[in-house]
Design goal:
Blueprint: H1 4-14, E1 26-27, H2 28-36, E2 43-47, E3 50-53, H3 77-80, E4 84-89, E5 92-99, H4 108-118, H5 123-131, H6 137-147, E6 151-155
Antiparallel strand pairs: 1-3, 2-3, 4-5, 5-6
Amino acid sequence: MVKANKFLEICKKCEAKCCKMGGPNFTEKEMRSVLKEGYKNYFYKVRKGIYELKSKKAICPYLKKDNSCKIHKIKPLLCLCWPVFPKFKGKNKSYIIIDCPMTKILSKKEIKNCKKEASKVSKELIEVAFDYSTVSGSTAKLIDKRFKKFKVRNLK
């Protein structure tokens, strides 16, 4: 997990592009934590125990105007592991790293910590984003267009 204060200025300068890809999926436990803290409900159930965010123009509804995160202290696992994500092929799990401005300054230890968080992400949570998403076709195209601006590489 990466500390927000260390990277907040980088994220603001990049305009939090990672948060403009529809927002992460949440487990039921993560969703309940957000609601328990009194944040507005933007959740839509897509599958048992997995929730997607309702967003406008594919922007996470918990992203502030200054490109910081409203729910930073309780953000979901998919945000905690950024920019490292698991990649599933059958029963095998590997990891990718997404090159964003923050990636360039992460230490090996910080990348290792992100990978540790990514190791907790279930195959189902990743699959739901691609196979069961409720976003419209035009929103999916917008998210895909934004994601393609990132370079992705395998992480060892």
